[in-house]
Write a structure and sequence with these properties.
By secondary structure, this protein is an alpha/beta fold. It is built from 24 helices and eight strands. The chain is about 65% helix and about 5% strand. The N terminus and C terminus are likely disordered. It is found in: Membrane.
Length: about 525
């Protein structure tokens, strides 16, 4: 893989089919997020712009080999509220541009280091939760119930429904045509996953998702000839804006209202977008790197700069905010992508198809695209992941499982926050227990107890060390050995010094210290 990392075109035979699959996944998600974010059909193209920018601009600027960026469902509520507050889409675009600038500054200031502090159990919980969410959210689309937008990740939906009530509504409003198309599509995708299919020359280059989309579209056209009541129309199909001429196409692009520079609300919204988009991107980076079969590390500061460039470009062209998105990234990985060319290709195809063939794309049923996303969701949340986390013990499994439940019952960022709290509790608990090694020996003149401090002793260990010193037996000898410690916090040194000077003599305890500085030398008093 070393040569392929240096030459983006080396793996084109893998990256092109993957880019095509990601494009098919991204197309309905870009449109769905745009409709949910703006509530206006005339602004649907803003999602496509964000998808194109996420693919091409962020794709080239990012150091992520497999991450895919675009409009994210996690920003829907923020965008909706921002439009209500600012009163115009053009003023909102200015906030997106400023948010991008803030992300670039954050990247230059090395704020991307935050990405390295997400515990592995929480990231794996996020992947599993997104997988389950995808399955639950896409089942209604597979049954022909398309009231909610494709790509929604939140438990409580914009229309007041939730993930589970939507499954009940689906039963009332399902469509025979959609069920047949999604069932055939799912069957074909499972078939494409079989090893023997890879041996067929045609299917080495033709992605299963593309084949499924072609078959699904042909089936729907066939229904129109033989069983008209099964035909899917309107909201059950892709709804890409179609321009009748070049002028109308260019009217889809909007410019920021720079006169809104004076409004405080613009900056408040920009900061909010910058923080949320950066967190989502860093979370996705961590998750994507875990899924990467070649285990490459994405430079997080460069990622923030790339996302900032993406948001500035998207805002200037009339697009929604962009983040790296785990659903598209995982689809990219599952399709066999090797380098960032796959995400650039997906953005390029998105742009070319929006220009040249929007009318034909609008024949694609959402139910066959739902089948593609169902497979992505299943692969993200396989049973083996849960079993593997369970075998690692409760310190890993509980934060993992709590993260899954929290994301499923709230949304991505709230769920991650809850998972982080639980993970940090277990980290502190472990840290509390393992700050030193306790050894007791019997000697003729009494007990000799050795406390061997660990390599790193921080203020978090202050409580456990203090408690241990308080419970030492009277008339004993204690050796506190810090000779193997690289760093001992001032707080801990202070406790040791206080015990040695005041409390130990009162209980006839002899204290010897090794490799531990005098607290006065550290504190300067």
């Amino acid at each position: 893989m070393s040569a392929s990392k240096n030459n983006l075109f080396t793996n084109l035979k893998y990256d092109f089919p993957s880019g095509l699959v990601v494009y098919l996944v991204a197309l309905p998600l870009c449109l769905g997020v745009a409709l949910a974010s703006t509530g206006r059909s005339d602004l649907l193209f803003s999602g496509i712009i964000a998808g194109v920018v996420g693919g091409i601009v962020v794709g080239f600027a990012s150091g992520s080999a497999l991450g895919v960026s675009g409009p994210a469902a996690g920003l829907v509520v923020i965008v909706l509220n921002a439009l209500d507050t600012l009163g115009s889409f053009e003023a909102f675009l200015l906030a997106v541009v400023i948010a991008g600038l803030l992300q670039i500054i954050a990247g230059l200031l090395k704020a991307g280091i935050i990405g390295y502090y997400f515990p592995s159990a929480v990231i794996k919980g996020m992947l599993a939760a997104i997988g389950i969410t995808l399955v639950l959210k896409e089942i209604p689309h597979a049954f022909g119930y398309d009231a909610d937008f494709m790509g929604d990740e939140a438990f409580i939906q914009k229309d007041g429904q939730n993930t589970f009530s939507e499954l009940l509504n689906m039963i009332k409003y399902c469509s025979v045509g959609a069920i047949i198309i999604s069932a055939v599509s799912l069957g074909l995708l499972i078939l494409f996953d079989k090893p023997f299919m890879k041996k067929i020359q045609l299917f080495k280059f033709l992605p299963g998702a593309l084949f499924v989309v072609i078959i699904g579209t042909m089936l729907n056209l066939l229904f129109g000839t033989i069983v008209p009541e099964w035909v899917l129309t309107g909201e059950h199909l892709v709804q890409l804006p179609v321009a009748s001429n070049a002028n109308e196409f260019f009217s889809f692009f909007k410019s920021p209202d720079f006169s809104a520079f004076q409004r405080v609300e613009v900056y408040t919204i920009a900061v909010t977008i910058a923080i949320v988009a950066s967190l989502e991107s860093l979370l996705s980076v961590e998750a994507t790197d875990k899924l990467d079969p070649y285990k490459r590390d994405t430079p997080t500061n460069r990622e923030l700069i790339a996302q900032g460039l993406g948001n500035m470009t998207s805002g200037l062209l009339g697009g929604l905010p962009v983040t790296q998105v785990i659903v598209r990234s995982s689809a990219n990985i599952e399709s066999g992508a090797r380098s960032k060319m796959a995400t650039v290709i997906h953005g390029t195809i998105l742009l070319l198809s929006a220009i040249f063939i929007p009318k034909y794309l609008n024949y694609i049923p959402l139910s066959c695209l739902a089948a593609v996303l169902l497979m992505v969701g299943y692969k993200l949340s396989k049973f083996s992941l849960y079993l593997g986390m369970y075998k690692l013990g409760k310190d890993q499994f509980i934060p993992f499982f709590v993260t899954v439940i929290a994301i499923l019952s709230t949304d991505l960022l709230k769920g991650i926050a809850i998972g982080m709290v639980v993970a940090i509790y277990f980290i502190l608990r472990k840290n509390y227990k393992h700050s030193y090694h306790y050894k007791k020996e019997e000697h003729h003149h009494g007990e000799v107890i050795t406390l061997q401090l660990s390599e790193e002793v921080t203020f978090l260990n202050k409580g456990s060390i203090g408690l241990t010193l308080d419970h030492l037996p009277d008339n004993s000898t204690v050796i506190i050995d810090g000779s193997k410690s690289i760093h001992i916090d001032y707080d801990v040194l202070e406790i040791i010094q206080d015990f040695k000077a005041h409390r130990a003599p009162q209980r006839n305890i002899t204290v010897e210290t090794k490799g531990i500085k005098d607290v006065a030398a550290v504190g300067g008093h």
